[in-house]
Amino acid sequence: MASSVGRRIARWSLVLATTACAADRAAAPVDADPAPSRDASTATTDARVRADAPTEAPRATADARAPDAAAGDARACATLALCDDFEGAAAGGPPDPSRWTVGAPDVTGTGTLAVDDTQHHSGARAVKVVGEGGYSNHIFFTNSAVIAALGPVVWARFYVRLSDALGDGHVTFLAMKDAESGADGGKHLRMGGQAKILMWNRESDDATLPALSPAGIALSEPLPTNQWLCLELMVDGGAGVLRTWVDGVALAGLQVDATPTPDVDEQWLRDAAWHPALTDFGLGWESYAGQAMTLWFDDVALDAARIGCF
Ligand code: CA
């Protein structure tokens, strides 16, 4: 117990030292105005923290999470447009069929998913995805009822636990269909990995966020394995803005705003008409270059305002 308290004090010290991250986290639960003009100085500070100690980045993120976990600042599940802790579904079966459709939009292969009681973030259950290598083995559970009704500003929060590090090849574990007219219509906005880091990919033109240059890669980070991570995203379709947090910390490389930033969103903003109209929200696994992954999802939520982590 004493050592636990000691660690917590050490974590608080770290948070106090990383003022920008702490400020960002402090604002998290009340950040009802997802302003597209993200503070450039914050982005610079976040990037510097990671650049100074690249091998320590995942631990710094995990440490920074602890104080907010104790504060329990996430909005209550019952108040959200969609919130599922997967406790109401039987282990071995699918997640609640009234909320989720399980399947592979294109080709069904050997990837599988089911509610599982061997890992959980909350309660006793989560959704386990056994994602096999190769595009034809993709598998997702998708909600198509909620996200389009939220309006142009969409917030999502989910917990994910990866069994292995993200590899060099492109993979997707979150896919949202974009129904906007034009080139992006019917294509997916995809979160996953490439070049060993967390990243976004726009299916319509294969643009990535960040750009996969050495400088861009340094502005994201690998995801730690075998631990639960709180991922949050905000998409403002009207403004053409996308924001991303891991354990409450905004990653400098995963932000699209109104200003093209080299190595971050300059490539993304070459599609000046990018104003996504999202119609579904799916979690699972899709591998284009062959990486298999076992991963779990829990406490998945969608709403029109920031949800927060707990
Ligand atoms: Ca759960």
Q: Can you describe what's shown?
A:
The structure is a single chain. This protein is α+β, with helices and mostly antiparallel strands and 310 residues long. It has a single domain (52-303), classed as Jelly Rolls, CATH 2.60.120.200. It is built from five helices and 15 strands. The strands form two sheets. Strands 1, 3, 4, 6, 11, 12, 13 and 15 form an eight-stranded antiparallel beta sheet that branches. Strands 2-5-14-7-8-9-10 form a seven-stranded antiparallel beta sheet, with no helix packed on it. Strand 12 (241-246) and strand 13 (249-250) form a beta hairpin. Helix 1 (2-17) crosses helix 4. The radius of gyration is 18 Å and the shape is globular. Mean pLDDT is 81; it is low at 1-72. Calcium ion binds at residues 85-87, 120-123, 125-126, 298.
Quote the CATH topology.
Jelly Rolls
Major beta sheet, specifics?
8 strands, antiparallel
How many structural domains?
A: 1
Counted by DSSP, the helix tally is 5
Which features does this protein show?
disordered N terminus, Jelly Rolls, 5 helices, alpha+beta, 310 residues, binds calcium ion
Topology:
Elements: H1 2-17, H2 19-26, H3 40-52, H4 57-71, E1 82-84, E2 101-103, E3 112-116, E4 126-131, E5 139-143, E6 153-162, E7 171-178, E8 187-194, E9 197-202, E10 207-209, H5 214-217, E11 229-236, E12 241-246, E13 249-250, E14 281-287, E15 293-303
Antiparallel strand pairs: 1-15, 2-5, 3-4, 4-15, 5-14, 6-11, 6-15, 7-8, 7-14, 8-9, 9-10, 11-12, 12-13
Helix pairs in contact: 1-4
Bound molecules: calcium ion (CA).
Calcium ion (CA) binds near residues 85, 120, 121, 122 and 123.
